[in-house]
Each structure stands twice: as C-alpha cells, then as structure tokens.
Design goal:
Length: about 500
C-alpha cells in the first residue's frame, strides 16, 4: 500500500460502525500513519448496528439491540473475535420451542402434522417440517443445490455461488426474479403463508432478489453459531480501542453533509459538528454508511450526483426492523404448559407467531438477581409501524432507542399472554429500538430483483473512477444483514483500492 515516493494519503472514514472501524484498523495494521487517518461518526458511540445494552448491569446477559450471533463459516468475523481480539464467546443454538399461528398453539414438531397445522397445504406439501417445506421450495427452484456445499461438506461455497449465478428458472436468471414470485411458482400460497408465519419474518420471503434470497437462506446458515458473552458490541469496541491506541481520532457528533471535488484533487467534506459546520480537506474519503445517509449526501452533493452512484442506489432497499426487550423479576416462561420450558445452557428458546410481536427469544436469567431477559418482539416490515405508533409520541419523535411506553407495554403483555395461554406478569422495564430511524434508515438491506449483487458490490466501492470517494458496508455487501457482510465489503475495498493482502487471521476451519 505504501509508496515510498509519495507522502501517505490523508484519509477520512465516515462511520464508526463495523465496516468503518475495520477499514481503519486494517489500514493502521498495514502501516498507514495514524495522524493521516481520521474517523468521524454521527452518533455518540461506536458499533453502528452492533449495540449491546446492559439493561440489568454490566455483568448480566446484555440485550443485543442489533446483531446477535455469528458462525464459524463467516471467516472474517470469526477470525477477528477468536484469533485477533480473543473475545469471550460461547456456542449457542436458538431452539424453536412452539408457535402460535391463527390462534392455535403447536410445537415446532407439530408443523408436520396436517391435523394440527392451521393451513390448507396441498398433499405434496404436507407432512414436512417447516425447514423441510422451505427446502422443498428451494429444491424445485435450484434442484442441484442439494448436491453442493453446504449439503456436500467436500464442496465449496464458490461452486455453489457460481451454480446459482448461472441458474435459470423458466428462462430467467434467479437474480432477475423476485423471491416471492419464485415461491409462488413452486408452492401454494397457503404454504408460503405458513412459512412466512412460522419464520415470523414479513420480508425474508418477500420479493427481494431471488439469487440473494437463496444465498441467505441456504449458504449463510452453514456453520456452528456463537455469541459474544459480554455483547457483540465488544467487537467494534476492540477495533476502536486498537486504532485509538495507535493514535487515530474518532470524532463523535460529526455528520457528513455533502462532498465536493477539491480544485487541487482530493475531496472537500462538509461536516456538521457540535462546534457548527466545518469543512475538511482529504486526499480520500471512505463512506462506511448505510443507504439512507448516503441518499441524503447524494442529494446535497451535485458532483457526486453526476456519478454512477445515483443509479446504483436503486439496487438495494432498506428494511424496517425493530426489537422490544423486557426484563421480569423471574423467568415466568419456565412454568408455561406447552411453552418453551427450561432454557438449557448454550441454548436460546425461541417462539414464533403471526401476531405483530412475531418472534420471542427467552434469552436467560441473571444468576445474581434471578431476573429474566426476553426479546419479546423481533419484527420487520409492517410490524415496525405497529409498535412505533404505540410509543408515547405515536412514532413521530424519531427516536432510535427509547424506554417502552405504557401503551406498547400493555400491548406486548397482551400478546405475550395470548400466545402463551397465561397471564404474563408485568415487566420490570422495557426498551424499544427502531432501526428505521436516522441515521440508519433500516435494520438491514436487500438486493432488489434485476440486479447482479456480485457486480454492483464491486462497482459501488468507487462510484467515480476519477474521484477518490469510496463506499463500503453491510448494505452493499453480498452477505446483507450480517456483520460478515459489512466486513466483506470493507475487505473488498481494502484489497481493491489499497492493494492490501488477504488478512492472515482468516480461518475457515472453525474451532
């Protein structure tokens, strides 16, 4: 990366989330001088959508307001956590417990019982687990995938990707199909609704890019799963601590507003800070940001709007997402008949419903106080509007994270009671996180039909060949919705723009 005949570039990285911090950390590790590197962040914390809230004290199981898990088939995040920073991790298996669908309670195993499942499935769709039904649909779309990785442990991810990229369904490439459109051709609408409700996700089986949807549902699920014992936010905190120790400044409360070409080359960056608006001159700008803030910067920057970036922005969509966390004075769910029962070590119990709460995770018990932590709602799509409107400001205040208001508290308690068939006690406290609010604009992103994500993910890195402005992050990755995707996007930028070698900490063997 270093050119002995040229002074080191002055680089500004906008965004102190995972991709921005990783980019800064890798540059410092490669020898870039700290005084020539600056990180600016709109908010007052590092981590972006990795946010671990210690609701019950620093030593208790944290509420993961954003990302929760990673696996050992994700080489960048696994290597950073295990090899580089040696963060305390634990294996975890989210175990589905039961479902409350169409006002009927059933165990996950009873999904395969046509007499218990309240959906009118076709004969060829009956008698399958929900994963069996999903794989039936995928097998009808991509029949050779069952012979490739990860079904075949001797295969490779690359071979599976190449198969899916080239695969045509009814004369069209998978990438040109909407996933819902594909599913409608291979399973009944009742089966689609049954899957949507049991998975309890409004958008996963929606009409995003058919290629990327299958990659997400099959390839991204491989490996053994882990959590960071003290919170997923420990990963960005470790990277931030490392670059700070090297002398890099992270300036909080600095929002990137617009960019201009410098008359002498480079970039002029207009930033709103606690001291007012200021202009920063840089040799190179890296925007490690989600789609929503980049849209705003693009609208305010005429020169940037003349690049191919404006057209590329239509390739992805921000997905609304929210979570509700509740603490209780005791783990009431352990005594629920036909409910989740005892949550074993290294296991998170999960229940699913077609109610607006969607997914409920029984996360654990604080050994010191005996209090229980529940993620009482993990919602996406239209579920976000349901919960946002129950907040004290009816969702108009634009708060990212806030205490759960009394109306929302009463409603989540009502839905928990309906779902579990008991009167659920009132929580001690509740937290609501709405990732749709600024500056994030969504919990994650999806590629839209008709776009080749594997091509655009590389084009977006440098939207104008003659201008040193670059973009990376989860939104623009080939593993959207995952921390690994944010790291992959940043790593692609580092190798493409700065010619950095593949990092030596990557280990595909797991632990």
């Amino acid at each position: 990366m270093m050119d002995a005949d040229k002074p080191p570039e002055n680089i500004v990285i906008a965004g102190a989330g995972v991709s921005g911090l990783y980019t800064a950390w890798r540059l410092i590790e490669s020898g870039h001088p700290a005084e020539r590197l600056q990180v600016i962040e709109t908010g007052d914390r590092v981590g972006g959508r990795l946010w671990s809230d210690p609701m019950r004290g620093a030593e208790a199981l944290p509420a993961e307001l954003g990302g929760m898990f990673f696996n050992d088939a994700q080489p960048l995040v696994f290597g950073l956590c295990s090899t580089v920073f040696k963060l305390d991790k634990a294996p975890v298996t989210p175990e589905p417990a039961f479902a409350w669908l169409r006002s009927r309670r059933l165990t996950i195993e009873q999904f395969a019982d046509p007499d218990r499942l309240p959906y009118n499935l076709r004969p060829d769709e009956q008698g399958l687990s929900y994963m069996g039904l999903l794989m039936l649909a995928i097998d009808r779309i991509a029949p050779d995938l069952e012979h490739l990785w990860p079904a075949d442990p001797d295969g490779t991810r690359e071979a599976s990707l190449e198969y899916l990229k080239a695969l045509e369904f009814e004369g069209r490439l998978l990438a040109d199909w909407g996933f819902w459109n594909l599913l409608a051709r291979v399973i009944s609408n009742e089966a689609w609704m049954a899957l949507r409700d049991i998975i309890s996700d409004y958008t996963l089986l929606g009409n995003w890019n058919g290629f990327d949807a299958i990659v997400s549902l099959v390839l991204e699920q491989a490996g053994h799963w882990y959590r960071l014992i003290h919170g997923y936010q420990k990963l960005p905190e470790a990277m931030a601590r490392s670059i700070r120790d090297a002398g890099v400044t992270i300036e909080f409360g600095h929002a990137l507003e617009r960019v201009h070409k410098h008359p002498d080359g480079g970039v002029l960056i207009d930033v709103t800070s606690p001291r007012g608006e200021r202009r920063i001159a840089a040799d190179r700008l890296i925007m490690a940001l989600p789609q929503a803030p980049i849209r705003e910067i693009l609208a305010a920057s005429p020169e940037l709007a003349q690049t191919r970036l404006a057209g590329l922005m239509t390739a992805i969509e921000s997905i609304p997402a929210c979570k509700i966390f509740l603490t209780f004075d005791q783990p009431w769910w352990r005594d629920v008949p036909d409910g989740p029962g005892l949550i074993e070590d290294e296991t998170y119990g999960v229940s699913h419903t077609d109610l607006p709460m969607r997914q409920c995770y029984y996360l654990g018990v604080d050994p010191a106080s005996g209090q229980g932590l529940v993620m009482a709602s993990y919602g996406d799509g239209q579920a976000v509007e349901f919960w946002r409107a129950l907040q004290p400001d009816s969702g108009r205040g634009g708060q990212l994270e806030s205490p759960l208001g009394p109306q929302a508290m009463a409603e989540i308690s009502r839905q928990l009671s309906e779902m579990h068939g008991i009167k659920v006690p009132l929580p001690l406290e509740g937290v609501f996180i709405n990732w749709t609010e600024r500056p994030f604009g969504g919990g994650w992103h999806y590629w839209m039909p008709g776009f080749r994500s594997w091509q655009i993910a590389r084009r977006i890195i440098t939207p104008a060949e003659d201008w040193p402005v670059h973009i990376c992050g989860e939104a623009w990755s080939e593993a959207q919705g995952w921390t690994e995707g944010a790291l992959q996007s940043a790593e692609e930028l580092l190798q493409t723009v700065f010619s950095l070698p593949v990092p030596d900490f990557i280990d595909n063997t797991g632990s």
